Amino acid sequence: MKSLFTCPICGQPLCAEEDRYVCSGGHSFDRAREGYVNLLPANRQHSKAPGDDKEMAAARSRFLEGGWYAPLRDALCDQVAQCAGEAPALLDAGCGEGWYTAALTDCIAARGGQSGGIDLSKPAVKKAARRCPGGEIAVASVYRLPVGDASVEILTNCFSPLAIEEFYRVLKPGGIFLYVVPGPRHLWELKSVLYEKPYENEERREEYPGFRYREVIPVETRFTLSSPRDIGDLYRMTPYFWKTPKAGAERLSRLETLAVTGQFRIHVMEREK
Ligand SMILES: C[S@@+](CC[C@H](N)C(=O)[O-])C[C@H]1O[C@@H](n2cnc3c(N)ncnc32)[C@H](O)[C@@H]1O
Ligand SMILES: [Zn+2]
Q1: Helix, strand, coil: what percent of the chain each, to 5?
Q2: What is the pLDDT of residues 16-43, one digit of tens each?
Q3: Is the CB of 117 under 6 A from ligand 1?
Q4: Do the Cβ atoms of 170 and 145 come closer than 8 Å?
Q5: Which of 15, 24, 99, 158 has a CA 20 to 30 Å removed from the CA of 203?
Q6: CATH code for the domain defined by 2-271
Q7: Is the CB of 94 under 6 A from ligand 1?
Q8: What are the sequence ranges of the domains in the chain?
């Protein structure tokens, strides 16, 4: 089967076989037991930024399975349903454990299309591959996507590093880029426990070369976490986990319940024709 992915060595299209991916140049990449393929070039395998570690991936996976971010997932699927043409190709760049990718894959499959996700983190990709048997999942970097020029109709990026030039390269002219970022008061109550003086996230609408804004879709939800484990999982998913003063982290660890606001923005951009 023709793959969404290209060979990271010679750039030729890859063909997906039962247990490996091959290109016409004779390069071959084994499919792991979980179903994903490692397409990170050998000289980048030992990079200092291997993406999220096993504990981070496990915490995010548990949290997302709780369904609290379902409104965001559903809004993304609505957008895909509105934007997708016939037999569309979708790539989720920085797909993590594939919680959004799985729903997007179903949406694309219903239109006879092909979808996939990549992430730098092997523990995350393992989970994503299990979650998305109908999509293709690879270990790769957003800064060097193993995907052909102008081959993708929809590119999604949820809370992952932005590689705008690569996204421009792989999107078809007129293709759609769905970029999910936190809203100003995302997780405000969590931040209010962690910090004496929490700050709102900056609301930005940046013009990227080669892209035209269609709209910014706000998505808001409120939910109550009622166990220290759920609260801890959410905390671990955030950048605050790495930079919160000890006192704030201790305050949070004493909580049994926490009502939280999830506030997201989906920036919908079109790649110029
Ligand atoms: C905050 S998580 C979001 C994951 C997923 N999109 C979600 O919302 O559940 C950011 C992800 O970016 C990945 N990441 C970091 N640097 C990356 C890179 N250069 N290329 C691809 N993925 C990267 C991490 O491994 C992590 O899975
Ligand atoms: Zn090759």
Answers
A1: 30, 30, 35
A2: 999 999 999 999 999 999 999 999 987 7
A3: no
A4: yes
A5: 99
A6: 3.40.50.150
A7: yes
A8: 2-271
